[in-house]
Structure formats: structure tokens, C-alpha cells
Amino acid sequence: MLVIYLVHNFSTGRVVPVVGGTMLLFSWFPCPSFFKMLARIFGLFSHDIGVDLGTSNTLVLVLGKGIVVREPSVVAIHSKSRDILAVGSDAQAMLGKTPASIAAVRPLRHGVISDFEVTERMLSYFIRKVHKSPTSLPRIPRPRVVVGIPSLVTEVEKRAVSDALRRAGARESFLIQEPMAAAVGAGLPVEEAKGSMVVDIGGGTTEIAVISLGGIIVGRSLKVAGDALDQAIVDYARKKYHLLLGERMAEDTKIKLGEATKGKRREGTVRGRDLKTGLPKTVAVSSHEIGEAIADPLAAIIASVKDVLEDAPPELVPDILDQGITLAGGVAQLRGIEKRFVRELGAPVNVAKDPITCVVRGTGVVLEKKELLKRISV
Ligand SMILES: Nc1ncnc2c1ncn2[C@@H]1O[C@H](COP(=O)(O)OP(=O)(O)OP(=O)(O)O)[C@@H](O)[C@H]1O
Ligand SMILES: [Mg+2]
């Protein structure tokens, strides 16, 4: 018997016919097309999703819906039972404040996966979360997933992410390198025979790449980015004011008062522990001081961008000079960074629109471009 079912695809909002029936299913079993069909049916009930698995933030995009998760990459776990107590901002609020029975961890550090198990659990949490939309039918999380990963990730780590995605329910998963995803998300013409240069300055890593014809021609990844700027502020406060700052205070200060080019003096305060008395202390600081504090790691980032520019094939340099260097990632929002890059590199520089979401938007673009996805997945 042949039956045609009408199935509502909640991802696209369309009603699609599915041909089936008991006899048909048995006659297909166990041929590969049977499994393909099953996967397709499961796919009707799941979302296609793109993930930016970042050191600082994890962003998840659902095709057709946009960015639905934007959370710090932090997980709070019960130390004994290993139960997950909180993920994202709730877990971040616990960082450095947990009792011995709870551990709040950042499973990615310096652009590499430092805790596989927790990374996997964080990914499954987010995948399940995006499938909990209020619809009349329960969603079975069997999505197609594209994940943007730091380019320093090793083969072993790549396999671990793919395994984690499979265990989290992905029916198909693709990994793409973060700078490529950032370039696609920033709208650069990555498929053309034209040099595009992107610098993605995130939390743990700065990814620099010159791209042409869908491939990275010259690239560099350094473990100096937002976290290193925070650490430089901690070191500065310790040296100059004998003040011990927490990670969050240093990051907030960088965002509020940090500058890459000396601008109009802005004043603020930092709070920490006086290393002499052991007591809490508040100190007045200026944007000029914070600019000085972060000078070294910033100079290291610029030096690497110069190296990559020097290594770029001469045929691509005119394109880069025409198009400009595109800055992405959270640190691209640092005050005066564009001006500083222009001054030091002698090339035009643009900060991408909403730089912190470039990678995840890039994964969304490639989810819809099968050929490009095949070409750039690693
Ligand atoms: N306005 C701002 N000025 C300076 N730095 C900022 C600003 N906003 C965010 N940041 C920094 O950007 C970093 C996070 O950026 P992003 O989310 O792109 O990193 P990530 O993708 O999680 O990390 P990675 O790509 O290294 O794995 C943090 O260090 C954060 O403090
Ligand atoms: Mg990133």
C-alpha cells in the first residue's frame, strides 16, 4: 500500500508530501536510502543551526529565525555528581564565587578545548534549548549543524567536537574555521579570485587570514586576544596600585575605559583587594592608563597582522588595499582600534557590522550554500 502523508515542516513553515507506507518501508529496509529518508524525516522536525563555539561566548543561530542564543561559554557543574547547574550567563555570574561543591568552568581557553566533557555538555544543552520552541508537535533534536571553531583546534579536538555534536543529536555536522566564518559573516567575497583579509580578535585567540577562492591563503592564529588584554590590566593594577583585580573587573574596565589610540581622557574606578592590607580598595583610573596597560598585547596583535600582510602573495595585496582589512570579534569594538590599525599598517581598515556575531552569521550563510559549505568545511 502506498500512502502519501502531508507533513508540516516547522523549519521552513511549508507543508511537504512524504511518500510512505508499511510495505514501502519494509522493501527499503535496510538499504542506505532508507536511512537517508529517516534522517530527512527527522530533519523535518529539527532546526538547521549554526554555532560559534567561542572561548568567551557561544552563539547559536537557527536558520530562518536568526541568533537565538548568545551566552558566555561558561558551565557550572556540581563537583561530585557532575550535574550541570547552570550554563551561560547564570554560570558566568558564579565564576570565582563558587563553594567547593560547585565548579564554574570555561571549557575553552586560548582557543583550544581544555575540557572536552564540559564542552560536549554545553553544546548539547544549547542544541536542546533551541529545539524547545512552543509548537504543537515535540521537536526531536536531529539538526544539521555548522560550527565555527578556532583554527588552532587539533585533529583530535575536531573529532571530539564532531562526536559531541553527534551525541548531542546532530544528524549532519560540519566544522569551519573561525576566520573563514567571520569573513563570510562580514560579507567578504570569499569565493572570488580576490584577496580578502580578516582579523577576528576574540577572547582567547586572534585569527588572521587572507582568503581567496574559498580558501585561506595565508593565516595565523595567536593566543593573544581579549583575555590577554584583561590579564594585562590585572598585571598593571598589581604593579602600579598593589591592587588585585578579579577577571570580571578587568574585563569591564577594558570595555569601559580601554583604548587603542590615545583619545579624550575618560575617568573611572576599579575595585579589588589591596595586596598590602588584604582589604577591599577602590582606585581611580583613566582611559589613558588602561590604554597603557593593554599596549603590549595590542602591539603583539598588530605585529602578527603585519607579518600576515607581508606573507600575502603580491597578487592579492592590491585587492586587500582596495577592500581594506576587516576587523571582527569582540575586541574589534575597542575604542580607537580602527584608527590604530590604519596608522600602523598603512592600509584601509573597516570594523565589520556587529563584529561579535560575524562568525555565527557566517555559519548561517553557509548552511544555505551547500557547495560553499562542502568547500570550506575542515
Ligand atoms: N566594547 C568592547 N571593547 C573591547 N573588548 C570587548 C568589547 N566587547 C567585548 N569585548 C571583548 O571581546 C572578547 C569576546 O569576543 P568574542 O565573543 O568575539 O570572543 P570568542 O569568539 O568567544 O573567542 P575566540 O574567538 O577567541 O574563541 C572578550 O575578551 C570581551 O571582553
Ligand atoms: Mg570567536
Explain what the structure shows:
This protein is α+β, with helices and mostly antiparallel strands. It folds into four domains: 42 residues, no CATH class; 147 residues, 2-Layer Sandwich (Nucleotidyltransferase, domain 5); 90 residues, ATPase, nucleotide binding domain (Nucleotidyltransferase, domain 5), CATH 3.30.420.40; 69 residues, ATPase, substrate binding domain, subdomain 4 (Actin, Chain A, domain 4, Alpha-Beta Complex). Helices cover 38% and strands 27% of the residues. The protein contains 14 helices and 20 strands. The protein has a five-stranded mixed β-sheet with strand order 5-4-3-11-12, sandwiched between helices. β4 and β5 form a beta hairpin. It is flat, with a radius of gyration of 23 Å. About 5% of the residues have low confidence. The protein binds adenosine-5'-triphosphate (ATP) and magnesium ion. The site of magnesium ion (MG) has 7 residues, from loops.
Oligomer: single chain
Profile the largest sheet: 5 strands, mixed
Average per-residue pLDDT, rounded, comes to 88
Roughly how much helix do the residues carry, as a percent range? 25-40%
> CATH class of the largest domain, anyone?
Alpha Beta
- Broad shape: flat
Summarize the structure.
With 378 residues, the protein is of the alpha+beta class.
Write out key terms for the chains shown.
378 residues; alpha+beta; Nucleotidyltransferase, domain 5; five-stranded mixed beta sheet; flat; binds adenosine-5'-triphosphate; binds magnesium ion
